[in-house]
Amino acid sequence: MPMAGNLRKVGSLRGVDSLRKVARLGRRKPRVDLSHPARSPLGSAVVNCVTYRHGIRQPGSSDVTAAVKQVRAQGDGFVWLGLHQPTVREFEGIAELFDLHPLAIEDAVLAHQRPKVERYGQTLFAVFKSCYYVDHAELTATSEVVDTGEIMVFVGHDFVITVRHGRHGSLGHVREELESNPEQLAKGPATVLHAIADHVVDDYLNVVESVQADIDQVETDVFAEDSAGVDPGRIYQLKRELLEFKRAVVPLARPLQELASRPLSVVQPEIQAYFRDVEDHLLRVTEQVAAFDELLNSILQAHLAQVTVAQNADMRKITAWAAVVAVPTMACGVYGMNFDHMPELHTRYGYWVTLGAIALVCAVLYRGFRRNGWL
Length: 375
Known about the structure:
alpha+beta
């Protein structure tokens, strides 16, 4: 494919000493996911490479090197390069072409980073955790509820590089929405960074709505009349998935605050106002996640309390029947000691009198326990 050839052309720029350490970390090349629609059959990580000028997509070759040279020769516009799970070999030439810092490269290739924003010279590096709700017919103790991925963004004065990790998180519709608004896209690469942050937080809101439905269902089951069959593992599973979601949401507050208020050379002040709007949306998600955590704790405690109450009711029944059975056991035990001189032992109707007395005492005990709700 053309993009594979272009990437090999860019890859010929390898040889930077600062990347050797990262290259050693990436010797084990992961298996290419051929089922992913964004990857070529040859395993190229490049999803798309587009040049924008005055907010309008420019036609022509998608060669990375040629696009960068054209933008820098003209002095305006920028290049948006999209990658999906690149290896170190695939990233080396691109890193040298755009003068990316080795530490940022290591984070982008190896992934598993917390949400953050860092500056390396004139380049801004941002990490977002993407979250998506996993549909399931019924919530069980092993159901996957939240699936996470990562989106790394390099932003310079004339380029944007997006690196995605995970099964989800395609930025195709984000690109389409930006291209439908050339005036906004013409403001520069920071517009793309804002669109990605807004897209990530919007997905958080969708996850919140879906998780709310799961919590409502569990709450309904716990407080139903027949709640004995409720599996507490479902509640624990929701808490585990919510914890994973929380790890993606909560750490993003500080990076968004920096993007909204901290002076950055690649983020114009007019774009920072948009980041403040995203920060407000994230605050809503954070508050909702905290409320979910407290609600799940309450549901779990309520379920355990119901289990304890049910066990106490069972124990009362067992104790009541044990008291009823203790009467004939005691009488039979006394008359089974085989002493020669025992009262009523040789009486003609002693047997029936004893049985009647036992039945009467048992009936009185049963009625008393029944009246007190023990039976």
